[in-house]
Amino acid sequence: MTKKNTDAASRPQDLGVMEGKGFYNRHSKPQHGAVAFGLPLLARAVEDVPLPGPGEVFRVADYGVAGGHNSMEPVRMVIDGVRRRVSYDPTISVFHTDIPTNDFDSLFTLLSSQDSYLRGTSDVFAYAEGKSFYERLFPASQIHIGWNAIAVHWLSRVPATIPDHIWSNRATGSVKEAFARQSEQDWRSFLDHRENELRPEGRLVVLGGASDEHGSSGAEGLLDMANAALREMVDGGVLGSGEYGRMVVPTYNRTLEEFRSPFSGGSAAGVLELESCSEVVLPDPFWPEYEKSGDARAFATDYIEFFRAAFGPSLFGALDADRAPQERERITDAFYGRLREKVEEDPAAAACAWHVALMLIAKRSVR
Question: Rounded to an integer, what distance in angstroms lies between the CA atom of residue 84 and that of residue 92?
Answer without folding.
Answer: 13
